[in-house]
């Protein structure tokens, strides 16, 4: 890729989040992640090219010096900042516009700075491309996997029902989504195969912006409302059509008899295996931090609680989920306990604005930043130092609550001497047919979207927390009035 000879025809729309728009190269395993600005600012950009460059460099530094140390560098691709020709960026912006989902168009792609983040394309991993069969990639945005400790919260419900499940009610009542998702992050992070299977099933059922599937680098399944604009993108039948060839011949099956249910179940099983094994043979221990009684189960989860009692083994040490959960748990005080410490930092910055740099609240995100948050005193001694350290921890935890996991799956490649990796090749069909287990896949697991969250997002988090909890308690009260507790809590 030569930066001075960029051609928009080599790139296509790949996806976007709230902060960035991503395009992928048609041949190379590369993506460009460009900043987005509110559409109102489209005439005059809110920051200079130098500031945009600094912002993206901060993202790279935060990912490589802070998040990768906490999450494990084997999962992280921090990428590099690139400077692109402005003409290329303008043409690209025009080219991708028709493919963007309408509800994301309140923001526009940054066409002023020419800066972007260049990353490997995790949905078309080049290492796995020797196989004839396109890799399947699953993107999961797991969200927060634990309940806050009762010490710091003012509303009891927060220690019973997880943030995601409460937020679902708020999102539906505010019109953000039409239907509630029954996915509960505590099920996914449980380490129990049955609960994890159930959680993934719910993500498939109602993907919202927490679940996507790619095949050969193209999105084949995502939320209909928030998705690619493709009519079929969240149609289960079309998903099964794509998945079937990967799962046809395992388990002594005869072609005609493979039900959609069995295909889906095999697929979920493969995905759950990848999530549990992603540590790569490490230790086999179990995370214990969260197993404090009552903090591993959300009362709003539809998963049958009795069943979950049996298989609650916790996550394997060093698995991707365990690394993410431990980083999320750096939020040890909850937003309610943290807010007074944020105010302490805020007040200090108001009195001594020049200290903003020294306290590294907007970076640089280097070794010293990481050290500051790791060397936090156990008790609040009333110092600024304690407050800054807790605020740093909280911001890192916010990033970990908002990241995505990308699991790339390639059929059969775990057999080292396997030359017939194509799922459709006759030898492989016969072998899989004769075996009585789900087909084997090799996988690679990555974590993406590891941007630092700005300091000013903390007061917004507090007010959102109030809104979500009030909305939930109101819904709960209304349901109790109607004697309709099943809406909120399933009978145990
Ligand atoms: N390195 C990558 N490889 C493949 N797809 C990516 C990569 N980075 C981002 N994407 C896709 O683009 C989407 C938006 O990127 P993301 O980093 O989550 O942006 P935002 O910060 O706006 O949420 C992701 O959900 C994912 O589908
Ligand atoms: Mg994102
Ligand atoms: Zn929940």
Automatic annotation (TrEMBL):
Xref: Gene3D superfamilies: Inositol-pentakisphosphate 2-kinase, N-lobe (3.30.200.110)
Keyword terms of this UniProt record: ATP-binding, Cytoplasm, Kinase, Nucleotide-binding, Nucleus, Transferase
Subcellular location field: Cytoplasm; Nucleus
InterPro entries from the UniProt entry: Ins_P5_2-kin (IPR009286), IP5_2-K_N_lobe (IPR043001)
Catalytic activity: 1D-myo-inositol 1,3,4,5,6-pentakisphosphate + ATP = 1D-myo-inositol hexakisphosphate + ADP + H(+)
EC number, as in UniProt: 2.7.1.158
One GO-annotated biological process of the protein: melanosome transport
GO molecular function ontology, one term from the record: ATP binding
EC class (word): transferase
A GO CC annotation given for this chain: cytoplasm
Family membership noted in the UniProt record: Belongs to the IPK1 type 2 family.
Its job: Phosphorylates Ins(1,3,4,5,6)P5 at position 2 to form Ins(1,2,3,4,5,6)P6 (InsP6 or phytate).
Domains: entry comment: The EXKPK motif is conserved in inositol-pentakisphosphate 2-kinases of both family 1 and 2.
Name under which the protein is recorded: Inositol-pentakisphosphate 2-kinase
Organism of provenance: Hippocampus comes
């Amino acid at each position: 890729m030569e930066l001075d000879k960029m051609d928009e025809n080599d790139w296509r729309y790949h996806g976007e989040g709230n902060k960035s728009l991503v395009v992928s190269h048609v041949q190379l395993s590369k993506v460009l992640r460009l900043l987005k600005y509110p559409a109102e600012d489209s005439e005059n950009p809110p920051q200079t090219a130098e500031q945009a460059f600094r912002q993206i460099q901060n993202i790279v530094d935060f990912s490589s010096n802070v998040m990768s140390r906490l999450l494990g560098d084997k999962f992280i691709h921090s990428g590099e900042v690139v400077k692109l020709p402005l003409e290329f960026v303008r043409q690209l912006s025009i080219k991708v516009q028709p493919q963007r989902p309408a509800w994301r168009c309140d923001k526009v792609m940054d066409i002023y700075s020419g800066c972007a983040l260049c990353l490997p394309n995790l949905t078309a991993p080049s290492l796995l491309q020797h196989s004839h069969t396109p890799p399947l990639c699953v993107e999961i945005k797991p969200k927060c996997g634990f309940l806050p400790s009762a010490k710091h919260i003012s509303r009891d419900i927060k220690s019973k029902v997880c943030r995601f499940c409460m937020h679902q009610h708020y999102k539906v009542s505010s019109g953000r989504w039409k239907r509630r998702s029954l996915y509960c992050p505590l099920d996914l992070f449980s380490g129990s195969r049955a609960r994890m299977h159930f959680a993934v099933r719910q993500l498939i059922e109602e993907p919202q912006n927490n679940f996507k599937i790619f095949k050969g680098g193209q999105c084949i399944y995502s939320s209909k409302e928030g998705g690619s604009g493709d009519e079929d993108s969240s149609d289960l039948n079309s998903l099964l059509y794509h998945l079937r060839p990967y799962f046809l011949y395992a388990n002594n099956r005869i072609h005609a008899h493979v039900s959609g249910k069995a295909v889906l179940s095999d697929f979920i099983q493969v995905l759950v295996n990848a999530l549990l094994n992603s540590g790569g043979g490490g230790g086999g221990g179990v995370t214990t931090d969260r197993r404090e009684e009552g903090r591993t189960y959300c009362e709003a989860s539809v998963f049958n609680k009795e069943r979950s009692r049996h298989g609650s083994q916790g996550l394997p040490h060093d698995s991707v989920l365990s690394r993410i959960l431990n980083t999320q748990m750096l939020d040890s005080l909850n937003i309610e306990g943290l807010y007074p410490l944020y105010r302490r930092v805020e007040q200090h910055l108001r009195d001594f604005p020049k200290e903003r740099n020294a306290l590294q609240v907007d970076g640089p995100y280097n070794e010293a930043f990481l050290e500051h948050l790791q060397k936090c005193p156990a008790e609040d001694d009333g110092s600024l130092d304690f407050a800054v350290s807790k605020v740093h921890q909280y911001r890192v935890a916010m990033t970990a609550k908002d990241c995505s996991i990308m699991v790339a799956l390639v059929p059969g490649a775990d057999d080292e001497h396997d030359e017939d990796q194509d799922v459709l090749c006759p030898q492989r069909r016969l072998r899989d047919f004769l075996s009585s287990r789900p087909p084997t896949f090799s996988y690679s697991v990555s974590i993406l979207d590891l941007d630092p969250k700005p300091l000013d997002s903390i007061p917004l988090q507090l007010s959102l927390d109030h809104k979500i909890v009030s909305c939930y308690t109101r819904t709960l009260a209304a349901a109790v009035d109607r004697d309709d507790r099943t809406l909120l809590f399933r009978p145990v």
